[in-house]
Amino acid sequence: MKSLDRFIRALRRLPGVGPRQAERFAAYFLRASQGETEEFIHALAAIKQDVKLCPQCFSYSEDGLCEICRDPDRDRGLICVVEDPQDIESLEKTGAYKGLYHVLHGAISPMDGRGAEQVKVRELLERVQHAQPPVREVIIATDPDSEGETTALYLADLLRGLVGQVTRIGYGVPLGGDIDYMDEMTLGYSLKGRTKI
Amino acid sequence: MKSLDRFIRALRRLPGVGPRQAERFAAYFLRASQGETEEFIHALAAIKQDVKLCPQCFSYSEDGLCEICRDPDRDRGLICVVEDPQDIESLEKTGAYKGLYHVLHGAISPMDGRGAEQVKVRELLERVQHAQPPVREVIIATDPDSEGETTALYLADLLRGLVGQVTRIGYGVPLGGDIDYMDEMTLGYSLKGRTKI
């Protein structure tokens, strides 16, 4: 069936979607009313039209500066660097951070031929150099994998001297995790990063 | 952000999609080229236009009878009843079945107010009554949950007398399963359904 196969192939391009889930999604749309399907299509077309990147932090924004960059109550002396816009939502949920963000849109990955110029590194350097008030601290919250680590070390080298201090989010055992299932690197970090109770 | 929130709400309606996956899908579309997005939209619009139900078995079909119903090599004396079109693909993968199918498009669920008239039961009865050659066996392959069981018993009552025999797919321990994690109902069935080796 040509049309169905073509749509299932398009669904398979969504991140993490396997053949079963793609079939289930196609079945959902086949059962959906024409109105529901049109609403989906309009909502998709609208984000392509309306959603831009914030000119300061490169998170999503539909109208100039994003909500966080516009918020007068955020601490402008703090910038937390993340790989993707979705990471911001996770960090916001902690309620533990009141500074600004900077979205790289990826991590540096020499293996995949993705260098600093493919992510928003130059924009970060320009931003901290011209920041008023000056930036006291840049917290690097790239993913704790090899690309995120490479990116963190690379950024730390560039940023030292430009900002008060550069920090990296803490490594350790995640809450709810099982000590005996934890890899030795993580456990090693959790020992080094132990705190008094 | 109005547009993004609206699209994420639309994505959340897809089966099994939680807030994180919806955000990841939205990020995929925001990164996708305009051409890729248009291709997705066209593919979606095309299935709504092209994909119909096979007038005999009610599986998906883009042109009259579906491929299986049209296939002269399938055994027309056998009908396997399933809840959803996707179930057919799973059964076809076994390579163990060469008959036809009948898709109910759901199961009977008195708790949810879904009776026999909401699924393709009447169509199944008419089909077996007029089938040439007559139907030797109807295999009921509804899900082994309470709705699927209710539906199987209900159909068996209606079909007895109209067809040679009515059978139900076998219950037992799934391959690769762990005996000590298996529920006692399944284990009970696997004991009753034991075969000589």
From TrEMBL, chains A, B:
Which stretches does the record call C4-type zinc fingers?
54-69
**Where's the Toprim domain?**
77-174
Can the keyword DNA repair be found in this entry's annotation? yes
Keywords assigned = DNA damage, DNA recombination, DNA repair, Metal-binding, Zinc, Zinc-finger
One GO MF term on file is: zinc ion binding
Q: Which GO terms describe its biological process?
A: DNA recombination; DNA repair
Spell out the CDD domains in the cross-references: TOPRIM_recR
Q: Which family is this sequence assigned to? A: Belongs to the RecR family.
Q: What does this protein do?
A: May play a role in DNA repair. It seems to be involved in an RecBC-independent recombinational process of DNA repair. It may act with RecF and RecO.
For this protein, the record's PANTHER family field holds:
RECOMBINATION PROTEIN RECR
What's the protein called, per UniProt? Recombination protein RecR
